[in-house]
Amino acid sequence: MSxxxxxxxxxxTLIGIFFYCLDxxxxxxxxxxxxxxxxxxxxxxxxxxxxxxxxxxxxxxxSWYLDDKEDALFYPKGKEALSGVTEGGVIALHVFGLSIFTxxxxxxxxxxxxxWKGSYDQADNSGIHQHLFRLATDLSMxxxxxxxxxxxxxxxxxxxxxxGHHESSVVQYVSIAFSFCSIAWALVDFRRCQKRSQxxxxxxxxxxxxxxxxxxKLFSITSHILSLILxxxxxxxxxxxxxxxxxxxxxxxxxxxxxxxxxxxxxxxYRGVIGVILTFTFFNVKRLNTKVPMTVYYxxxxxxxxxxxxxxxxxxxxxxxxxxxxxxxxxxxxxxVLGMLCLLVYYRFLHHVGDADEVDGxxxxxxxxxxxxxxxxx
Length: 378
Description:
Blueprint: H1 7-36, H2 40-67, E1 80-82, E2 85-86, H3 87-95, H4 99-115, H5 126-164, H6 170-197, H7 208-234, H8 238-255, H9 264-280, H10 291-315, H11 325-350, H12 370-374
Antiparallel strand pairs: 1-2
């Protein structure tokens, strides 16, 4: 594990805040556009996803600030949660939904003085680098929550509006593009932080392993979302099936008895969030050997992808004459095959068994946060 927070990691954080701001900004612009067009249904749903992601991430972020209250690096004077920000200021930032943005700025500010100015070169700097990795890890988890509560549903909604109702605009296309980029960035960033947090594990190397993992996730999620859109085009009652999938995933997470949060109420919210993530992609929730659950998950997911195309083609034949049916079908088939191929290549040749999907085992190293130890594994 690298003991130093590098310039590359600082630049990665900078790109992350860029994608985050543009993703949220374009979604807010869509809300305004739908309001001006008096399309209140699309406006309400778009705003709902933005607010849901925002509210849930604020809850977790503020809870983590309280959990870290004894950390002298977080509270250097015993009263401040961040440098120059009082506890009351932190509450205000969370009320106005600025926790992720604030954490990005705080991490960029603190790491800039370390990696660019070399402010800590004359002293023992292991503590500050450890702190920077902890900040980055917390941020990666929050961004993952936000991506699956806001960006993924937004991508599903806006693509459905575009294909199913033939309503499109430049802002909508930009929103879809940045939602996609935000999801991709959150997945890779979380994976890298998670790999760094495992005992006796090297950080996920750049290049082929990172790209293969990214393509595995993006191909599988894209084909999954597009197949859901075809089912929604067939019947809006497909949302009931989607809700049932979320409920089953949440119940399964509940029976696994996760212990991620410090309060029972927040733990139930956390399990609901994991239910959302499992609705769209596979994650190892808690101390499980992933081979069998992952196989079952993707067999069912692939079957659903193929079934969506066949059902729409047979039950709604006129859909075959639409401009989107053939391209979307090809993307679903290709995404399913390529996603599974990337998955096999990654776990067969690029995934280290010693780093694998293990949460139990030797005591974690000091720089690993308790939160990441208790969190699920990808």
